[in-house]
Amino acid sequence: MGRIFRLGPHLALLCGMGGIPLPRTFSAVLVLVAVGSASAQTRTYPRSLDGLWLTDGYREFLEFRGDDMRSYEITALSCIPVVMATRKIEMRTVDEIVFVGEDDTLRISPGPSPETRWLHADGSVSNILLRRTDFRPEPCGQPIADTPLTNYQVFWETFAENYPFFTLRKVDWLAVDEKSRPQVTPKTTPEELFQILSHMIEPLYDAHTAIRAYSIRQGFRGYRPAVDPLQRKSAARITEIIETNYVRGGLRYYCNKQLQFGLLRSGPTQNPRLPDSIGYLRIHSFSRYSDDRELAKQLDALETALDDIFRDSVKFTGLGNRCPHQWRRLRCLWCLHRLAAGGTRLPRLLKGHPQ
């Protein structure tokens, strides 16, 4: 359902193909931002959570039974199970019930009325409002065939109902359907269907869209075209140039090499009385900071790394105990947010250096 530091919960579509169990083959992921008012999140003391719930937006349906929770992604055509989670009694607080799944920690808290709840996924910045319902959505009572064409239809419909940026991306989704649908036949293989679906969303150039084909071990993630192709082709060379020409003593790695830190060499822009006073921090990603995927462990790893960098940076100067307050010399920090496609102009700064 999500990753660390995401903007909102992932909307996942799981499609089966060619006799493969439906929930295990494809996952098309869109990241959407929930809009919620903190002031509106009034706490109440509602009755049992057991029963059926619909999200306010997001097209999700949830069912709670005792210690078990199951969620489904719904469209006009489909009702696909995507998350199974179990209540963790030891993690419960007075106003919060916690469910833990394979990839997610979900927190349920009282909503603004007895028949509502707030759903929060660890790593999200906002909550989703749940509303109790007495009926299952109509697609949830209808079996869906596991065929190439059905998988295609569910994929197209999910984007048609939920993706909000077709106009911004200048993509005519109906025209995409007219071009792509004739390519799908009853004999289309999983590999062929994967290529068709990938080509459909590639022109969106949206890094928050992805397809994961578990059964054939293939994946696709959207991306923005790079400002300068050098950054995609020569990331290792860029790091080498920075370490060789700009950082004294090389870069130090943290959080499974997702963070790098070093002190820039003295130069004309620095105060000669304060050498090594400018720090360089590169953030490669917003996740994978710890081998443990739990958000709390990821945050612990990040906080430990930042403490090490800013509180104990004396070790970077090489002066050790001779200058216990050396960290005060860090007067400026240059922070580079990833070498991501379309995400940095760093290569332009490095032109003129040997390639």
The number of helices is: 9
What fraction strand? 25-35%
Q: What is the count of β-strands? A: 16
Major sheet: size, sense and barrel closure? 8 strands, antiparallel, barrel
Quote the average pLDDT: 76
The whole-angstrom Rg is 24 Å
Low-confidence segments: 1-40, 316-328, 341-355
Overall number of structural domains: 2
Give me some keywords for this one.
9 helices; 355 residues; disordered N terminus; eight-stranded antiparallel β-barrel; four-stranded antiparallel beta sheet; alpha+beta
Describe it.
By secondary structure, the protein is an alpha+beta fold. It folds into 2 domains: 1-223, no CATH class; 230-349, no CATH class. 22% of the residues lie in helices and 27% in strands. It has 9 helices and 16 strands. The chain has helices at residues 148-162, 166-169, 173-180, 190-201, 230-233, 235-245, 295-310, 314-317, 346-349, and strands at residues 10-15, 26-31, 51-55, 60-65, 68-74, 79-87, 97-101, 105-110, 116-121, 128-133, 209-213, 218-221, 247-254, 259-264, 278-283, 332-337. It has an 8-stranded antiparallel barrel. A hairpin with a 3-residue loop joins strand 7 (97-101) and strand 8 (105-110). The radius of gyration is 24 Å and the shape is flat.
